[in-house]
Design a protein that fits this description.
alpha+beta, 2 domains
Length: 372
């Protein structure tokens, strides 16, 4: 039996390592600054995304060197020219010219930094952006836009089903900012699998009760519903507090520390399902670690920036987007969990082995993030 358990744990760790290395979520960062007929900006793509686009790893050894990156510069520029189009008034295409590629380090890895300028042939009041980067290679990819013009900053989530977007540079509306930050919040929680796995680890036992050192199904829906509400409410309240504090620069934490602790929080929540220590007060875990997750959400806002004149509206919209995305996942998963709660598959399969897989995956993340 012990040998079988060791084999299972080895399998879980191997699978977790493979999943952790997989391309779970992909975000690019597009910054643009408009000055009359000229646009200056930069596109940042993760090294792994550059590999998907043009094949940076020329010797196939699994590592991208600076030499390989420089050798792929022309291919990268050609790729971007074919997948990112800017146009001014009347659809006048902007002619783009690139500067040498550079590298920027972020919490989740190294990014290609492709600075460029674009000549749009004359002053313009509206700018259209057609963003098709990685639309064929990775449909989950999104570009986070920061657009500065006439003293105002606009943001957007580019890509997906609608690649072409039009921006009014003279009269950007607060409502537009609200919609964009709402979409950004939803996308971040759906693409932020670490936040979802933390919440899922706390919610899996919500349809069970611990008796005589084993998990048993709750007899009615009311206790399960109460458990779900407590956990979700505590997590929401906690991350809303720290998200707001960080967004307004009241307090900030180093990105590596925040992301490492988020990974550790998943390990704690998942292992608590395998070796239960906290059974009735899981909302306390949700609140305590939710404070750290709020700093993780704030990192996205730091990348996008809060537009002047609409800071509070944008913050509220982003947080509502996070809650909407979170609620959609809860509504999709928990009814199924309630239906399966009495089965051996759920109590002896999903709870111990599913939680173990989550913990192993989070352990890989923790090592990656803590050690850079």
């Amino acid at each position: 039996m012990n040998a079988m358990r060791k084999s299972w744990w080895m399998l879980v760790l191997v699978l977790a390592g493979a999943v952790a290395q997989a391309h779970i979520a992909s975000n690019g960062f597009l910054s643009l600054e408009v000055d009359r007929s000229r646009v200056s900006g930069a596109l940042e793509l993760a090294i792994r995304d550059g590999e998907l686009a043009v094949g940076l790893d020329r010797d196939g050894n699994g590592k991208v060197t600076w030499g390989e990156l420089r050798a792929s510069q022309a291919a990268l520029q050609i790729y971007v020219l074919g997948h990112l189009h800017l146009a001014g008034n009347g659809g006048q295409q902007c002619r783009m010219a690139f500067s040498p590629v550079q590298v920027n380090d972020r919490v989740d890895g190294s990014y290609l930094w492709l600075p460029f300028t674009a000549d749009c042939g004359g002053a313009f009041k509206r700018l259209s952006i057609d963003y098709k980067v990685l639309d064929a290679e990775d449909p989950s990819h999104r570009g986070l836009l920061t657009l500065s013009a006439n003293g105002a900053t606009q943001t957007a989530v580019l890509g997906g089903a609608s690649t072409l977007r039009l921006f009014d540079l003279e009269h950007p509306s607060p409502w537009s900012a609200f919609v964009e930050y709402l979409r950004a919040g939803i996308w971040h929680i759906w693409s932020g699998i670490d936040h979802l796995l933390f919440l899922l680890s706390l919610l899996l036992p919500a349809v069970l009760v611990r008796r005589q050192n084993r998990w048993e199904a709750v007899p009615m829906a009311a206790p399960a519903f109460a458990n779900i509400v407590k956990v979700v409410t505590a997590f929401t309240l906690a991350h809303s507090i720290t998200l707001s504090l960080a967004a307004f620069d009241v307090i900030r934490l180093p990105g590596r520390l925040t992301e490492s602790v988020i990974a550790a929080s998943i390990i704690v929540a998942a292992l608590n399902n395998v070796i239960p220590r906290v059974t009735e007060g899981r909302w306390r875990i949700a609140f305590a670690f939710g404070l750290l997750h709020g700093f993780g959400f704030a990192s996205v806002l730091a990348e996008m920036g809060l537009p002047k004149g609409a800071r509070l509206v944008s913050l509220v919209a982003f947080n509502l987007g996070v809650e909407a995305g979170q609620l959609a996942v809860v509504l999709a998963v928990m009814p199924l969990a309630y239906l399966l709660r009495s089965t051996a598959f759920y109590r002896r399969g999903v709870m111990p082995w599913g939680s173990s897989a989550i913990a192993a995956l989070a352990l890989v993340w923790f090592v990656q993030r803590a050690l850079g």
